[in-house]
Structures are given as C-alpha cells and as structure tokens.
Amino acid sequence: MSQQASKKAEVDLPVHYKYQETRRQKTGVFFRRKIGWLFVIVSIIAITIFNFYPMVQAFLLSFQSGMGANLEYVGFNNWQRLFGDPTFIAALTNTSIYLLIQVPLMIVLALFFSVLLNDPKLKFKGFFRIAIFLPCVTSLVAYSVVFKYLFGIDGIINQFLLNFGFISQTINFLADPFWAKVVIILAITWRWTGYNMIFYLAALQNVDKSIYEAARIDGANAFQQFFQITVPMLKPIILFTSITSTIGTLQIFDEIVNITNGGPGNATISISQYIYNLSFEYTPDFGYASTVSYVIVILVVILSIIQFRVAGEKK
Amino acid sequence: MKKFYLMLLLVVGMVVLAACSSGDEEASGGSGSEGSSDVDTITAWAWDPAFNIAALEHAKEAYNGDGEYEVNVIENAQDDIIQKLNTGLSSGTTNGMPNIVLIEDYRAQSFLQAYPDAFHPLTDVINSDDFADYKIATTSFEGEQYGLPFDSGVAALYVRTDYLEEAGYTVEDVTNITWQEYIEIGKDVKETTGKNMLTLDPNDLAQVRMMIQTNGSWYVEEDGSTPNLAGNETLEKAFETYKEMMDADIAKIVSDWSQFVGAFNSGDVASVPTGNWITPSVKQAADQSGNWAVVPMPRLDMEGAVNASNLGGSSWYVLNVDGKEQAADFLLNTFGSNPDLYQTLVKEIGALGTYSPAAEGDAYAVEDEFFGGQQLITDLSTWTDEIPAVNYGLHTYAIEDILVTGMQDYLNGAELTTVLENVQGQAEAQLK
Question: Is A66 domain-assigned?
Fold first, then answer.
C-alpha cells in the first residue's frame, strides 16, 4: 500500500521538476507526501508492533531453549535437533501427505463443482450452492467431532458398510494409521471445498460468455472449453486458492486434535499440533516450539515460490 | 525516499523499544512486590464444576480461620489453565494470574521446575505427614513443599460380580491378584459370558502407567528427567502384560472417553481398572446397582509389586503473587487441616481426599449399596496409603506419546528390547 502511494506521488510530479530537485525541494516533496503517510502510518505502526515485532522475537526465540521461563541461547542446536527428532519428522511427513493429496483433490473438486453450478441451465442453483458452501460456516471443532463419531467403531459409516455387505467386520478407522489419515483428508476436503468453490464461481461470472460462444461455433466440445478456456481464465484464482489452501493445510490443527488427537501413535500428528504439544502439553519449551513454527514459515515461502513459478506469474 | 524509510524505521524502532521496555518494567513491578500485602479478594482456578469447583465452594463454607477476604472461584477448562499459566508465567507478568490453582500431579514437576519462583512454598504452612506419601513426592521440589495434595487418584479394579459369578468366580478370586491371573479369569469370562474383560485405548497408556507404579517405577528415573525406558524391567513386564491382554482377545478397543464410559455403562465389559474418580460414572447405570464390587488393583507379577496404584489426581498450588499469604491461609484452614470438610466432600460430591486424619470420620465408613454394601471410601483410602511413591518427573506426557508408537510397533510383532531401546533413543533426542 505505502509503496504504491509513494510511487503514484512520484509519477504525478512534472518531469522537469524531478531533474531540478534540490535538497530544499526534496524536503518539500516529503512535506507534500506527508498527508498520505499520515493515513498509512497508523496501520504501519500497528502491523509492525503486532506482526513484525513478534515475528522477529519468535525468530530470536527459535535460537533459545529451556524449560518455561528459563530460556538461554543455544545457537543452532534447535535446528539440528529438528533433524534427529522422530516426532517432528512424523509430523512433517503427515502434513506433507495431507498437502500432496488433499490440496490438489480439493482444488479439482472445487473447480468441478463451480463449473457445474455455473451452468445457466441448472435448476435450483441457489440450493446447490448453499449446500456445498454450508460446511464452511460450521465450527471447526463441531464438524470434527461429528466426523469422529461418523467414523467411530460404532459409527454410522461402519453400520452402513456392514449392512450393505461391503465389509464383514467393522473397521476401526481412527485406530488404523492409514484409515485415520483418510478420515482427516476427507474431513478437510468436506469442510473447505465449498470455500474454494466460491472463489471460482465469482471468477467464472467475470468470464465473458462470448468466448464460450465463439468456442462452440468453432466446434470445441465441453472438455476443450474447460481446459482451453475455463482453466486459463481462472489461472490467477487457481493460484490464489492453491496458495491459501497450502498455507491452511500446513497449519492444520483443529481437525487433527479433535478427530484423532494425532493418533494412533503419531500417525496423524501435524506440525501445528506438535508445536502445541511442545508448548502446552509437555514441559514447555517455547524456544524449540518456535523453531518448529519457523519451519512452517520456510515451507510456506518455498511452496509459494514454486507455485508462482509453475503458474508462470512474473511477479 | 531512502532517507524517509530510514526515519520511518527509526520511529517504528523507537516505538517498539518503548513498548518492550515498558513491558519489562511492568513485569518487574509485579514480581518485585514481595513483602506482605493485604488484598480483599483472592482468586482460585479449577476445572470441574461437579468435582474440584464444588470442593472449593464447600471449602469456602468450611473456612474457619480469621482472615477477612473473599474467595473468588473461577472455572476454566484444564487445558486453558495450563495454557494461561504457561503463557502468563513465561512472559513474566503476573497480571491476571490466580492466587490458588489446581494442577494435575503428572504436570506438577514441570511447572515447579519451569517457573522456579512462580510458586509460593507451603512447607511451613501444612504438615506433610498428614497426607499420603505418594502425593508429597509429586508436589514437592528441592525439599520445599509447594502443593497441598487434593484428590486421591488411587486406582482400583471395578468388577461386575454377576459376570464373574457366571464364569464361576467370586470377588475373592479377583482380590489382590496379579495381572496374569487377571488375564486367565478374563479368558474364562469371555468364554462363558461373551463379554470382554476390560477396555483399552491404544492412544492412552494409562493402563501401563498404573501397572508400573504398582512396582514403584516410572517413565523417568529418580531425578525426574532421565528417560527410564530401555532396560526398565517393570516397563518390559507391563508391555508384555499389555500384549498378553491384546493377544488373549479380552479387551474391547475404545478411542475416547465416551466410548470408555459407554462400554461399562452398557454392560459390555466385566471390569474397569482405573482411578477411583470413575465411581460416579459407574453409578450412572443405576440398573446395575448391586452388581459391582471394587477390589484392589492387580499387581505386576514381580518381586516387590503391591496391589495399589494411582491414576491422575491433582493438588492445590499458591502462586507467588499479591495475596499469597491469604491464599495459603485459606488452604491451611480448609483442605490443610479440616477433617470435617473431607467428610462433606465425600458425602456431597464423592471426592476422596488424601488427608489421612479424615479417614476416621463417619462419612468414610458409609456402606455403598451400589457396590453391594461395600465400605468403598474406607477401602479406597486404605489403598491410597499403600501406593508406591514415584517421582512423576517432567516428561510424563511427552514420553507417553513416544511410548504409544513403541507399543504399536511391539503389538505388530517387533521385539520388545529393540522397541524399548528405540523409544529410549527417541525420548533422549526429544527431551534434550
């Protein structure tokens, strides 16, 4: 914001003025821009105090270790410790699995639903949109608990599978390392697909109908229209949703804690839950916990850069 | 332009510096107020309205000292209390901290060691000999007594007498037995009644914790911080016993508290080995009245193991903030010295304390019809005194999370010594 504002002011100046700038006039320029700065300075200070300052402190904290308030600097020990910590590695692996399977699955599903719902011939459009979006307004904890009971050993899913003869014995979904992960992925997909769909729907409204018309006249079928027109037109939105979903999945916490509590063993534990455990469940080591937090930061940065590259955005 | 950014940075830097230096002042002001200070109100935090909150309310009524102050009881979820204490104490500010707080025994040492000056010692306030030994071990640190022991987590075996009878056993047959004998009985019970003997939650090794304490062992060594897993014979025995139970197919697998309670309320299991705080939940199934009995916890089949153990339990702590004298005074004149209060607690809320002089009271001798006229409270408090004292140390939950994965490997066929060496290595790596 601030940068844009200052750039604009610079552009507005007459060309000759720029070349004649003297020391005194420079101050004048600064004075003229002051009003603009006054508008943004409050939020800049607030962001600095409440965002950047804690970030710097957390970074410093990641080089300290100790119980509770007895922290001391330990250099890169925490960072070395990460690589020898099986729980951290398990958490990282699980989170990566959620990320690699769930995000693409959800993006494709959301895209699919939004294209279906954008069909002008579709009846009860409002109903379907609400039905798919509704999971997003449910509380994270409430829906997690519902999923936990659905997939419980006496839950409705087991009953259903038994009654229809798909299985001969109940599956203890939440006590099985593989199925527990499946349940988590199903749950977050259910919760967030509608949310991403809304972005695509909004973007689709802005795609000019005449492009599709022209495509149809040229003989493009539905698949070609989808891959040649819809996907390229939605590319910025797809990029946006995949980045936000990636960040969201990297920070996944509520679902894991409420559905499986990280179990069985460490089969579903996520990085965020491990951070929580290090800070509040075990004897608190805030230093090491913030090192683990910074791993998420680094991952988000790396993954976002990759996504920008893949999507071919210049900036 | 550059100059301006520099100025901006400077301004922001100054603001930030000002912000943190003022924070420091506040913190030092808070902890610097040693000396005695009079306050009108003291605050107490606990988490269970049916149990420890209710106990505090009864304590307020029973208070017989001459201090003049209000006691403000606030209910917080246990997890919230842990978080608030951790964030509050580590930031160094005592604003918003309570005067009295209830802390679970398994966590006590980690708080006492992580925040050395945050708690007010009660060594001169209470008489440690009045309380069960094992509680004193967990609530003191470096020779100072910090906690006032509250509820007993004495573990017991709740059995369905009707199922046992059907399988040809009496209550005597399950009294003071070993876990091996328990498993044999369990097999017979399953064969004749089709009911499982107990529930097990693969994510919660409470069963293992209770087993190892019968032999005075714990996840950590005496120092409270060195993991004691590889080569710990008691733990090996407990793991073997756990696996035998699984292999004998006498355990119903549950994954949370409601399934656990549901299993015995619906009559799916023949026994419940757990802490005595389960009594109210067992009694929920009123139609099962008379079909239950409570016997001492089975012991590990080892030299020195006793038929007494513990699961959970908590104690009161006084924080080192203004009003600590009043808080200590309140605790002394209620939980610390008033046997009558403990009678009320037993009668009104079924809370069993660990204050030994209270055991002679009438309420403790009441016969409980639900348990076939057994003098349940008397029995439980007798067993409380036999619980081997162990230092729970700092890492109970951290190690347990590692052990849970180890247990999975072991149940899936890995060799026990390898598994335990493995978890020992993991624990040492994680707890540096």
Answer: no
